[in-house]
Structures are given as structure tokens and as C-alpha cells.
């Protein structure tokens, strides 16, 4: 089973992406390096609530 999570840029705090994550990894906070249109650079995007 999966749950939908929102990813936010760590530099500008803009919520840019949504993805899914399994419930088995629910206790870990997801962090992915992705492109931010607002910053214009590749930055770390972290899971938000």
C-alpha cells in the first residue's frame, strides 16, 4: 500500500512535486535532489506534511 507525499524545495520552500511512498518506509523522511523552477537549480526536495 502506498501514500501520496508532497516534496518541497529546501532553499525556497516551494512545493513543486508529488510522489508516492510505501507505508513500510513511513517513519523515514523522503529527500530527493530535483530541479526547482523557482530557484532555477537542482536542490534537495524533502517530504512535507
UniProtKB/TrEMBL annotation:
Question: One GO CC annotation, please?
Answer: ribonucleoprotein complex
Protein keywords: Ribonucleoprotein, Ribosomal protein
Does Ribosomal protein show up as a keyword for this record? yes
**One short Pfam family name for this protein?**
Ribosomal_L33
Question: For this protein, what is any one GO molecular function term?
Answer: structural constituent of ribosome
InterPro entries from the UniProt entry: Ribosomal_bL33, Ribosomal_bL33_sf, Ribosomal_zn-bd
Q: What are its GO biological-process terms? A: translation
Q: Name the HAMAP family for this protein.
A: Ribosomal_bL33
Q: Which PANTHER family match?
A: 50S RIBOSOMAL PROTEIN L33, CHLOROPLASTIC, LARGE RIBOSOMAL SUBUNIT PROTEIN BL33B
Q: Which family does it belong to?
A: Belongs to the bacterial ribosomal protein bL33 family.
Protein name per UniProt? Large ribosomal subunit protein bL33
Organism field: Paenalkalicoccus suaedae
**Name of encoding gene:** rpmG
Amino acid at each position: 500500500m502506498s501514500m501520496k507525499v508532497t516534496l518541497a524545495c529546501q532553499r525556497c520552500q516551494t512545493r513543486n512535486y508529488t510522489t508516492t511512498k510505501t507505508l513500510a518506509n513511513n517513519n523515514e523522511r523522503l529527500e530527493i535532489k530535483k530541479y526547482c523552477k523557482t530557484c532555477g537549480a537542482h536542490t534537495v526536495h524533502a517530504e512535507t506534511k
